[in-house]
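Async update (no meeting this week)

Hi team, since we skipped the sync, here's where things stand on the single-chain job. The sequence we agreed to prioritize is pasted below, unchanged from the tracker. I ran it this morning and attached the output directly underneath so nobody has to dig for it. Comments welcome in thread, and please keep replies under the output.
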Amino acid sequence: MEEEIYPMPSFPMLIVKDLQVSSDFYQNALGFKHIFSMPGPGGQPVLVHLRWVKYADLLIAGPRAGTDLTGPKGLGVSLNFGMFDRFDGDIDVFAEHAREHGARVTAPSASPGMYAKSLCLILMGTS
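Output:
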């Protein structure tokens, strides 16, 4: 099935050290779907568009030429996942799946507000 392409007035973009490793992690560990990759010089991807669910898109890209990513991974970044129908809506199943694929996960915990549980993923092994 081909995924729908629609206008995205706002979306997160993460800059990563290794685009292929990070793309594989988001797809295999977290269940994102690959929408498309934009090739750069030489045909290698320079940007990957991933989707959690409709209207929950994420773009990841490698650093610009000459830029070194020296700061701590994930500094100031929070990724929040609405479970909906993913992993049968079970955040504990999602957390275990992510752990099995290299994420360090703090235990799902009770959270006030619109979500019954929240999950903190520390994305280890990604670039």
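Quick observations from my side:
The chain has one domain: 13-64+79-122.
Residues 13-64+79-122 form a domain with the 2,3-Dihydroxybiphenyl 1,2-Dioxygenase; domain 1 fold (CATH 3.10.180.10).
Reply here if anything looks off.
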